[in-house]
Specification:
Shape: globular
CATH architecture of the largest domain: 3-Layer(aba) Sandwich
Structural class: alpha/beta
Oligomer: single chain
Strand order of the largest sheet: 5-6-7-4-8
Largest sheet: 5 strands, parallel
Number of helices: 9
């Protein structure tokens, strides 16, 4: 909301801008003390109303709300994503290197969008390594530049769709699906988290196919890998309970081969291997600034 005592807008949320010289582009903010209701008999002035700076914070908050970014992640940006957090010789260096590389890739995506923007990102890795933080940071940077974005938790999206089938529900199935399908940039967080059912696989398959066919960009995060955790192809520092919870399922097991194949076309895969930051550092009493 606008500040009630703001000297520029007087609490209206709008300030008047008037050109100083018709032959120059310089502008200044003025307060119109001579404004009268109805049609003005005075000469036309080169002035217009623009949102006042005092309401900028509120506009940013409303923008995040429209994008459905949860309050827990509203603070996430590239600047506060730390990549130098792990100690312990070779393992710590490898973990920090994985975080740094992921940050570089996601930053480059946001910086270069929409050039080459037909390809989204799939951030893969264990819980607590910052996948959602990086994805939201990209959304926020793009929103600042005027792009339209939406955030959906995978499980919540499926629940919203299921609830829409109730004839007494105020929102229809298409009412739920339309913003998902039409969003310029869509972030689906924690895809594969729900146990796979044919309905869930068909639903996410429909969403991804529709967005792929219309060249809409999709960002996704998942805790599931393309290989079982005991696969020797996975780096040794990425195995074991210190890095991830025990998972035997792969992403194909959770989404099906058809959906995973579509994601190869839609997204660049970014793997992040590091311990669960929330468990290993926060619970040890080291707070990330």
């Amino acid at each position: 909301m606008a500040e009630s005592q703001c000297p520029l807008c007087g609490g209206t949320g709008w300030r008047l801008v008037e050109r100083v010289d018709a032959n120059r582009k310089a502008e200044r903010v003025v307060q119109r003390q001579d404004a009268t209701p109805g049609a003005s008999v005075r000469p036309t002035k080169l002035a217009w109303a623009v949102p006042c700076d005092c309401s900028e914070a509120d506009r940013a908050s409303r923008s995040l709300a429209r994008a459905r970014i949860p309050r827990r992640y509203e603070h996430c940006d590239f600047e506060n994503f730390e990549t130098d957090v792990w100690e312990g010789g070779q393992e710590g260096t490898a973990w920090d290197g994985s975080l740094s590389q992921a940050k570089l890739v996601v930053q480059a995506f946001a910086r270069n969008y929409p050039v080459g923007g037909e390809t989204g990102l799939l951030l893969m890795g264990p819980c607590g390594v910052g996948k959602t933080h990086l994805a939201v940071a990209a959304l926020r940077e793009l929103m600042v530049r005027g792009h339209q974005a939406r955030f959906y938790d995978y499980r919540e999206l499926l629940k919203e769709l299921q609830a829409s089938y109730d004839p007494d529900h105020p929102v229809s199935e298409m009412g739920v699906l339309e913003p998902v399908l039409r969003a310029e940039i869509l972030l689906v967080d924690d895809i594969g988290a729900s146990k796979p059912s044919q309905w869930a696989l068909d639903t996410i398959g429909h969403i991804l196919n529709k967005r792929y066919n219309e060249n809409r960009v999709t960002l996704l995060t998942t805790n599931y890998l393309d290989r079982a955790e005991n696969d020797p192809a996975i780096p040794p520092t990425a195995r074991g309970q210190k890095i991830t919870a025990s998972r035997e399922d792969t992403l194909v097991d959770r989404l099906g081969q058809r959906v995973r194949s579509r994601l190869y076309e839609m997204c660049r895969t970014v793997e992040i291997f590091a311990p669960d930051y929330r468990r290993e550092i926060r619970h040890a009493g080291r707070i990330r600034s």
